[in-house]
Each structure stands twice: as structure tokens, then as C-alpha cells.
Amino acid sequence: MLPIILTPNSAKIGLAGEGEALERRRALLAGAGTTPIAIGPEANLGGLTILFVAGLDAERSEALALRARRAGILVNVEDIPLLCDFHVPAILRRGDLLFSVSTRGRAPGLARRLREWLEQHFGPEWDARSVELGDARERWRGEGVSAGDISVRTRKIIEEKGWLR
User: Fold this and answer.
1) How far apart are CA 114 and CA 127, in angstroms?
2) In the prediction, which pLDDT does 7 show?
3) Neighbours of 43 (CB within 10 A)
4) CB under 8 Å to 37, separation ≥6 — which residues?
């Protein structure tokens, strides 16, 4: 497993599917700041980097995944791990702060429950906290503070404010 955070505008993302599953994937991508390209069953996949497939039966999902792979496109087919090149973790967003939990697709219920636990412990106030520390880091970098000292200062603020108690 290789966890990465992808900047959405660095990839051309397609979305194929139907129904509620399709809308869940569309909402996930919107939350990440991207509007995917709608892909029909026979659509040209040229130029895509990533393809999400959701809400299609196994036969159509497999055919689309195979076409995408032949074109060098990474594929995620919701609820069919064998057709996936990557898995989508359980996600909690608090502004720029992103928590993700993954079981490599093996126990999605566990990942979901851990995300729910994180939601209870990291409320909306963490968005402002992340902004505060990000602004301070930018300021310190501008002042020429070393990376090590920035880390120490960041920890000090977190401890002084009691954010992790």
C-alpha cells in the first residue's frame, strides 16, 4: 500500500456509473475540489489519468476497467477490490486537514468506524487550528526559521493550547 495525497488539478479524473453509488463518488470528488469528467459506457477514455467506476454491474464494471487499464489509466471500481488499482480510504475533512483510514479494502466497516471516531474527536474547530498553524509556518519560513525549529514551535503551540488533550 502506498498512501499519497493527489492534487486534483494534476490529474484528469473520469467518473462512470449509475445511481446512488455514482452520486457518492461525485460527492467525494467534489469534496476533494475536483469535478470529474462524466464517462459513458462506450466513451473515449483518452487522456484520463484516473477512472472511478460506481454503481455498474460486475460485467460492465470489468469491461470498463479493462479498457481503462489498457490505456494506462488507474482504476477504482467501487465494491469490487479485484478490479481496483487503488482504494479510497475512509475520509474526514476539516478544511485543509485531512484524515484518512484504510484497510486496503479488506475491512471497510473498520475504516468507517475509525473515521466516525475521528469525527467525534476532531470537530470543525480543527479547520481554524490548521489555518492558524499554516499561517504561522508561512511566517516563520519567511523569517528564515529552520524546518527543525518550525517543528518545535508547532509542537509548542499545540501543547500550550491543549489541542490534543
Assistant:
1) 19
2) 86
3) 14
4) 12, 13, 14, 15, 48
pLDDT at 15: 98
**Of 156, 125, 11, residue with least CA distance to 73:** 11
CB-CB contact of 21 with 54 (8 Å): yes
Please report how many Cα atoms fall inside a 13 Å half-sphere around the Cα of residue 2, on the Cβ side. Answer: 3
Q: How many residues does the chain have?
A: 165
Q: Are strands 74-77 and 37-38 parallel, antiparallel or unpaired?
A: unpaired
Residues linked to residue 52 through DSSP beta bridges, in sequence order:
15, 76
**Homologous superfamily assigned to 1-88:** NAD(P)-binding Rossmann-like Domain (3.40.50.720)
Rg (CA), the chain: 19
The SS3 call for residue 74 is strand
Cα 66 to Cα 12, 41, 47, 59, 70: the distances in Å are 18, 12, 16, 11, 6
Mean pLDDT by 10 residues, the chain (165 residues): 84 96 95 93 90 96 96 94 91 94 88 96 97 98 98 98 95
